[in-house]
Amino acid sequence: MAQSPFDINLASWNERAGIHLADETGFYEIDAFRAGKSTLHAIEAGEIGDVRAKRLAHLQCHIGLDTLSLARMGADVTGLDFSSSALEGARRLAAETGLPATFVEGNVYDARELLTGQFDIVYVTWGAINWLPDIDRWAKVVASLLAPGGFLYLAESHPFALVFEEVDGRLEPGMNGFFTVDAFLGQRFKGTIHEIRNAAQTVQNVVTYNALIDVANDDLKLRPGMTANTTIIYAEKDDVVAVPNQAIRFRPPPEMTPAATGSAAGAGTGSGRGRGGGNWGGGARPAGSGLPRGEGDGAKTIWVLRDGKPQSITIQTGLTDGTNTELTGGDLHEGDLVIIDANVKGGTATTGSPAGASPAGGAPRMRF
Predict the structure, then answer these.
(1) I want to staple 78 with a disulfide (CB 3.0 to 4.6 A). Which of 102, 186, 286, 356 is the partner?
(2) Concatenated DSSP letters for 152-169?
């Protein structure tokens, strides 16, 4: 009898657990962990905050290194994984290090039934959700585990991105930028790229190159170890017509065509400036959206409201700041209504519904 995909995956992870616990390549740094080193990367350690005395559920915890590192930080931790071999190793590491932790074997979709009580933090990181067949169901399980005021901490990367090594050729010394730190919300610190180092750093098979940024710190607000969200300005244009990126990403459900109506957000100048920047990372096109026919370099398909009906048009685009994109060509003008979302409520699409209304018959509700 043929094995199910779940059984095949489980067998694979049971086999991998032994290999990872042996750590012959040093990737998991188990000896360093035994000696007291945390296995959390700087981004997780910096963002998750003070976990002392917090109840924390680590889903898909594998061999428990991060679970036990969080216990070392003072959290009351429970790790869940479906691999008995991985959990055997996790319990062994807990015993060796004397770190208190509970490890539970089971399917992540059964976490609510398997884990007792509610948690202040649900923790999921790196190479976890790409294995899941039903993200909506997973999210509901996570929500059921959280206590009032609790939160999900999710740090993840797209597995396809892990095959690439990239140096962004647009970044050069002398470029200006700005960054924020969590300690001073709403305040922007300005800086200039001083150097882009050639020595690579590799985390989860992603190769990165550090850039050094000069910034004035006369009031000594900035301190070593702070996590910064950085934007580098590689080009600027003034007085451009900009299109919301939500409109560029939008793809209509079948129920929306050939006719529907709604309420809208317009193409416009916004702050009067189109600015191209990057947050040291890239956005991904939503799964399944595909590349519409006719889209090439700078060409994008968007949907607009014309005569009360949705209509697709092709536009040419330029700079983007991640939120809005410069319009360089196409049949779109400042103030036109562009569609950014549609909520289909079952039934057949009809026309004539007022903005924000949910007409009888279940026509789509659109946002503009």
Answers:
(1) 102
(2) EEEE---GGGGG-B---T
Residue listed under structure tokens 């990165």: 208
Per the structure block, which two tokens stand in for 338? 């562009």
* Co-location of 99 and 172 in the same domain: no
Indicate the burial class of 201 (C-beta count within 10 angstroms; 0-12, 13-18, 19 or more).
exposed
Query: Among residues 136, 228, 147, which one has the least CA distance to residue 187?
Result: 228
Of 97-101, 149-153, 159-163, 254-258, the poorest mean pLDDT is in 159-163
CA-based Rg of the chain, rounded to a whole angstrom? 25
If DSSP codes are grouped into helix, strand and coil, which group holds residue 75? coil
**Residue 53 vs residue 194, higher pLDDT:** 53
pLDDT at residue 350 in the model: 33
If one compares 93 and 253, the residue with the highest pLDDT of the two is 93
What is this structure's pTM?
0.49
Type of residue at 13:
W
3-state class (DSSP) for residue 135:
helix
Q: Write out pLDDT tens, residues 107-119.
A: 999 999 999 999 9
Task: Say if residue 257's pLDDT is above 80.
Answer: no
In the three-class reduction of DSSP (H, G, I as helix; E, B as strand; rest coil), residue 7 is classed as helix
Dihedral sign computed on CA atoms, order 251, 254, 257, 258: positive
Range of the domain at 173: 163-234
Q: Of the candidates 234, 256, 280, which is a domain's last residue?
A: 234
Helix or strand holding residue 14 (H, E) = helix 5-22
- Listed residue (163, 339, 154, 167) closest to 251, CA to CA: 339
Per-residue tokens: 325: 């994109």
Which residues make beta-bridge pairs with 104?
80
Alpha-carbon distance 256 to 367, whole Å? 12
User: Do 50 and 130 lie in a common domain?
Assistant: yes
Distance (Å, whole) CA 107 – CA 115:
11
Task: Specify the DSSP element, H or E, that contains 151.
Answer: strand 146-155
